[in-house]
Automatic annotation (TrEMBL):
Biological source species: Pseudobythopirellula maris
Zinc-finger ranges (dksA C4-type): 91-115
Protein name per its UniProtKB record: RNA polymerase-binding transcription factor
Record-linked Pfam families: zf-dskA_traR
Annotated Zinc finger DksA/TraR C4-type domain residues: 86-120
This protein's UniProt keywords: Metal-binding, Zinc, Zinc-finger
Example of a GO MF term: zinc ion binding
InterPro entries the record matches: DnaK_N (IPR037187), Znf_DskA_TraR (IPR000962)
Domain of life of the source: Bacteria
PROSITE patterns: ZF_DKSA_2
Length: 122
C-alpha cells in the first residue's frame, strides 16, 4: 500500500478514535452519573419498582455499549500502530492484502475477508 494511502487511513482512524472516545466518555457520564448532580436531593429517585428496573436496564445497556466501543478503540489503536510500522493493509493471519473496499468499510480491520470468515466460523 502506498504511503499516501496509509496516511489517509491513519487520519480516518484518528478521527474515528476521537469520536468514539467522546462517545465512551458521554456514555460513562450518563451510566455512572452521581447523585451529586441533584445536590443530594432524593426527589430524582424512582418511586415505582418499574422505574427502577428501567433505570437499571438503561445503565446495563450503556455499560455494554461502552465495553463494545472500548474493544473497537483497542482495534483502532492497533491499526494505527500497523500504519506506523508500514504493515497496514496486510492481513495479520495470512499476510495477504486486505482489499481497500474492506478497509473503507472497516478501517481498523486486521484481517482479509477470507480470514474473517474463518475466524467467525462462517
Amino acid at each position: 500500500m502506498k504511503k499516501a494511502d496509509m496516511l489517509a487511513y491513519k487520519e480516518r482512524l484518528l478521527a474515528l478514535r476521537a469520536r468514539l472516545r467522546g462517545d465512551v466518555n458521554a456514555l460513562a457520564s450518563h451510566a455512572l452519573r452521581q447523585s451529586d448532580d441533584d445536590g443530594g436531593d432524593s426527589s430524582s429517585m424512582p418511586i415505582h419498582m418499574a422505574e427502577l428496573g428501567s433505570e437499571n436496564f438503561e445503565q446495563e445497556f450503556s455499560l455494554s455499549l461502552m465495553e463494545t466501543e472500548e474493544t473497537t478503540l483497542t482495534a483502532i489503536d492497533t491499526a494505527i500502530e500497523r500504519v506506523d510500522q508500514g504493515t497496514f493493509g496486510k492481513c495479520v493471519e495470512c499476510e495477504g492484502v486486505v482489499p481497500k473496499t474492506r478497509l473503507n468499510a472497516i478501517p481498523f480491520t486486521p484481517v482479509c475477508v477470507r480470514c474473517a470468515e474463518k475466524l467467525e466460523g462462517i
